[in-house]
Recover the amino acids of this structure.
């Protein structure tokens, strides 16, 4: 086994026994939501996964160790420390590990560590993508490159329109990443169920998701699969309202010259501020919805 990797005893027992396991990221804890809702949400997501028959493996870097499976105390620590913990994408891993530092893992890094541990299904909220204005800034999330090379199914609620959704889909197509709509033909836009952009395939059951991913693994096709699961109707937000807040956040980021890895956390915090917490409630509900689907899908995959 990778000498930098620690798999918790519960996660290890599940993997050794061929039981379903669902990976979870930690940037959403340290950088994506405020304390204490971040910790409460992370623990509720773990509970939801257990209730649906799988074992949760929250992933992070603690003291330079790659962790698959955190204790509630470790989750509390990451949530309380918040943005003091380095947001860790692929390029951050070597130095953080060598220095024995902490890192909150993005979608990209969570996929890397999940794959090292042998975990195939990962639930999150939103992924990074091609930012608006990327034709001049070249701000394209490392999440997309990871989906191109690392064999993990990522279940998300689509992408926020802080991104250029059309360019994000083009990029994923070029990289050979299947983009699946769960029960929908349209890419969901995180807070809303619709975006105006189509997905590659609509699949309607956990069985269909699991068998498509199994086929990809069996063929040895590198890379992952992106499953986009619309936010439940009752929690979805008014598109005019939320898109107005997003546009304002993007303008403010430009005016302040926010760049690089600070961009996504800045936009998320700004949107939350502008919508007075409504967006946080929607965010929590869609993550729970993705956790349920991931637990069910990993249970099917474990039997195939
Ligand atoms: N988008 C969201 N919520 C998030 C993120 C993105 O709606 O919490 C986080 C995820 O961890 C994602 C990361 O992997 O931001 C992408 O950051 P960047 O755009 O810097 O690659
Ligand atoms: Mn970026």
């Amino acid at each position: 086994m990778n000498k930098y990797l620690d798999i918790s005893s519960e996660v290890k027992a599940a993997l050794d026994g061929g039981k379903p396991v669902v990976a979870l990221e930690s940037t959403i804890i340290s950088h994506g939501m405020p304390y204490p809702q971040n910790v409460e949400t992370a623990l509720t997501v773990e509970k939801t996964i257990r209730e649906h028959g799988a074992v949760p493996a929250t992933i992070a870097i603690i003291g330079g160790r790659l962790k698959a499976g955190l204790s509630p105390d470790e989750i509390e620590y990451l949530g309380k420390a918040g943005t003091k913990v380095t947001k860790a994408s692929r390029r951050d891993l070597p130095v953080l590990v060598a220095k024995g530092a902490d890192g909150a893992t993005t979608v990209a890094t969570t996929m890397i560590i999940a794959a090292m541990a042998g975990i195939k299904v990962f639930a999150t909220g939103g992924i990074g993508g091609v930012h608006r204005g990327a034709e001049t800034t070249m701000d394209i999330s490392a999440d997309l490159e990871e989906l191109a090379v690392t064999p993990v199914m990522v279940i998300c609620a689509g992408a926020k329109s802080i991104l250029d959704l059309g360019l994000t889909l083009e990029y994923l197509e070029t990289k050979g990443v299947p983009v699946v709509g769960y029960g929908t033909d349209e890419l969901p836009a995180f807070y809303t169920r619709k975006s105006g952009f189509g997905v590659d395939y609509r699949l309607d059951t956990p069985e269909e998701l699991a068998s498509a991913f199994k086929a990809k693994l069996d063929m040895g096709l590198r890379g992952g699969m992106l499953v986009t699961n619309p936010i439940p109707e009752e929690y979805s937000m008014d598109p005019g309202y939320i898109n107005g807040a997003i546009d304002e956040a993007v303008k403010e980021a430009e005016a302040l010259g926010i760049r690089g890895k600070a961009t996504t956390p800045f936009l998320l915090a700004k949107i939350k501020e502008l919508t007075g917490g409504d967006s946080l409630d929607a965010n929590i509900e869609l993550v729970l919805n993705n956790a349920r689907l991931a637990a069910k899908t990993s249970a099917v995959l474990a039997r195939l």
Q: What stands out?
A: The chain has one domain: 5-303. The chain has a mean pLDDT of 96. The longest helix spans residues 278-303.
